[in-house]
Amino acid sequence: MQRQRWPSLGALYYALLALFMYLPIVVLVVFAFNDSPLMVFPLKGFTLQWFRALGQATEMLKALRNSLLLGITSSLVATLLGTMAAIATMRYRFALKGLFLAVASMPLVIPYVVLGVALLILFSTVGVPLSLFTVGVGHVIISVPYVMLIVAARLAGFPASLEEAAQDLGASYWLTLWRVVLPIAAPAIMSAFLTSFTTSFDEFAVSFFLTGTDTTLPVYVYSQLRFPNRLPIVVTLSAIVMVCSVALLLLAEWLRTRGEPATRRVKQ
Amino acid sequence: MNTRGRLWVLIGPPAIVLLAFFVLPMINMGSFSLRQGSFGAARQLWTIEHYRAFAANEAFQRLLLRSTWLALATSLLTVILAYPVAYHLAFKAGGRRMTLMMLLLVPAWTSFLLRILAWKLILGSEGLFSVALQALGLMQEPRPILLYTPTAVVVALVYSWLPFVALPIFAALQRIDVRLLEAAADLGCPPWRAFVRVTLPLSVPGVAAGFFFVFIPTLGEWVTPALVGGADGVMYGNIIQDQFARALNWPMGSLMSLVMLAAMLGLLGLLVGLARLLRLDLEVV
Amino acid sequence: MSGLAVELVGLTKTFGGAKGDEVNVAAVRGVDLGIQAGEFFTLLGPSGCGKTTTLRLIAGFETPTAGEVLIEGRPMSQVPAHRRPVNMVFQNYALFPHLTVAENVAFGPRVRGMARAERDRRVQEALELVRLPDVGRRKPAQLSGGQQQRVALARALINEPAVLLLDEPLGALDLKLRKRMQVELKHLQQEVGITFVYVTHDQEEALAMSDRIAVMNDGMVLQVGTPVEVYERPATRFVADFIGETNFLPAQVALREGDGLWLTLEGGRLLARQPAEALQQGQAVTLALRPEKIDLAPSNAGGLGGVVQEVVYIGTDTRFVVRLASGAQVVARLQNIGERGLGEFGVGDAVTLLCAPADVHVLNN
């Protein structure tokens, strides 16, 4: 009796929660098709004008481009630095390792507003003008600890003897890193990169303090929140971005499951 | 290249970047809290007047206290709401687990700012709830539902964090060996007691990870209160932001940031200490 | 106490069967067993034979597809695992990692609401019973494998179950410790007098410890008997093969002689004791011969002849591989005592295989 009652209760809760999670999303998507510049209920009718207007929203598209560029660059840098740090801390012994780990993971426990203003003051003190570069620095600092954690967890999962074996077979240390360590850690590195990218692409609290004249998409969106009649276009763009990311996600999942039968066959 | 050399090549760049763009800014911010003004000559003058002003300003302290309370409430509520989700995913979902997990994560892929905006559209005076209640005759004139209150801040934040809290709890639950639950049943535990005595304690690391994952950013939050909090929903992060965006009192802002850092680290220490006292294994950073 | 502690009636468990599963796997197929109170009973079989599933059905972790489990005469189909008067020692012990050793052992009494003082006393007793009186405050992870094993025992025994279920409890220990624990477990069982149902795939372990053994394969019980019975009189070829080493030789029934039966093989003949079941003349059967029951004699002694092909010294014994005229190979083991064993025969020597009629087992094909 208990066995039959519980799953349905859990499933019911899950369904309610899904409703809670999707209600705002649905509201946003609905307004992308609503025939009114004002985002209020009741709805006014169906329109595609916001999609047509998207092409003319040059400032927003520029912010989108900036965000994509910044996301890719800062994630690449953060992934590189974080992976190096992970290999160093997992495979070497050195005097200040504890201190290094503590400092490197500090950004995880520091509110973004503090990080943002601290960097703002630094750049101002040193005389570096605010730009996409300064935003990128903030994003790199945010992402490095995540990359370190993800990659280190993967490195902990396989023994250092693999590296010793490669070197025993004549590979130099750097070749070993390239041919053995990186391929094994590749899934973790890829996932670290994606995590960094999505963080950077959606990051606002730090970016707000460090943006110059070239804005990122979230900073642009924030500036538009005060002008209600421009919001429908913003919402439309974000609906498109969401559909694209979900499509990417499904594609990745499809590729993954499509690859599976082959590997299963090999195992058998 | 010897081992030392390789180590330097690997650790050097991340260490330099962290020193230059994390340690240095923090130290610099500390020293900035002792300057007189934000720009020009005032920046070169040293003073402790901001410390006096902060100590004298009870409103600041009240706000810090209230933000802490709000962050605690948000974190607890999120954990409580996320736990059954994680439990369902880990133990009951079976073959539909991946699908259900995706279902949970997809909303999180929408812009953070727009998800908060969506709550404005739902809770506003001409929003979904208000219009629906009027249509049902339960409300006479357009009125915001919860919008511009601390509750709206909590709702929006819980909404944003929920999937990210469910994941670590799910991971912790999934690591539990089912034989431990069988052992509990074997030793006479009915299911609910096995949950309390075995499942719950063993999921503490995931719960703690989820809790801190929410607590830390929420304590420093300023965007959500700025958008849906109204006058009553202002948080400590907002007054920091204000010092830089409007008041342009950077030294005071630096001091406030330092206070928040101290409060944050102090609270984390307190919570971790408390957990240790209760003999819970946290295994978090 | 007498009577049946556990009775299994037509017990069947089929896995799968849910939508999407390609095959239904019958893990346990119509098992009937009666386990006496106070008995050390072993379920023995290769992995996948259904022995662990049978144990889990008794514990209540699995629901039978058909049939019934009775514990002390009470049907268990409506009794959930946590209300059954049995306790289990799990394969990898399943000690609660978040609780200390003492808390682990106290788990059962605490759940049953035993008063604190009484509980503490019992925990100490249980830990002393397994000879670990001083580790109560430690966490399981701080103990060695052997110690964890004992804690798991104490945690189960403290509840004074009607039946203690043990799922390959020594599987994770190294050989030496394993041997020691076998002796200790047996003593412990005699000391506490609780019925043990023990699952293992290790035939030596089963022979050394059990009062009775049920040999299982493919979800079915093939033979139930004392260690002597299953070893000396295996009921099927599988049992003979699984327990100990056995030579299998095809033969034909020749003629009856008193209470004996002559069997002809290619290359000679052997006398067996008359088996219980009636066999007809000319019927094809299989002979099962244990290597240690075969004696070798110089050729021309009549009987079954062959040529020594391989001689291996293994300490206590010498192992001879003899090739028969049919091409079949027979392994014989001679103890190295005095003139016997090593050096008695060399490779290439023609020998005669001798076997007492009582040690020649005739298996109906």
Shape of chain B: globular
Instruction: Encode the helix/strand succession of chain B as letters.
Output: HHHHHHHHHHHHH
Rounded mean pLDDT score of chain B: 87
Distance between termini of chain B? Answer: 33 Å
Number of helices, where a helix is a run of at least 4 consecutive DSSP H or I residues of chain C: 8
Largest sheet of chain B: none
The largest inter-chain interface, given as chain pair and residues per side, is:
A-B, 80 and 80 residues
How much strand of chain B? under 5%
Rg of chain C computed from alpha carbons, rounded to a whole number of angstroms: 25 Å
The outline of chain C comes out as elongated
Total strand segments of chain C: 20
Strands of the widest sheet of chain C, in order across it, are: 6-7-8-3-9-10
User: What's the gyration radius of chain B in Å?
Assistant: 24 Å
Q: Which strand-content bin applies to the residues of chain C?
A: 35-45%
Number of helices of chain B: 13
What does this structure look like?
- The complex is a heterotrimer of chains A (268), B (285) and C (365).
- Chain A is 77% helix and 0% strand.
- Chain A is mainly α and 268 residues long.
- The longest helix of chain A is centred in the C-terminal third of the chain and has 37 residues, at 231-267.
- Chain B is an all-alpha fold and 285 residues long.
- Chain B has helices at residues 3-32, 49-56, 58-92, 97-105, 112-123, 128-135, 150-175, 178-186, 191-202, 204-219, 223-229, 236-245, 250-277.
- Chain C is elongated.
- Helices cover 23% and strands 36% of the residues of chain C.
- By secondary structure, chain C is α+β, with helices and mostly antiparallel strands.
- The longest helix of chain C is centred in the middle third of the chain and has 18 residues, at 175-192.
- At the A-B interface, helix 1, helix 3, helix 4, helix 5 and helix 6 of A face helix 1, helix 3, helix 4, helix 5 and helix 6 of B.
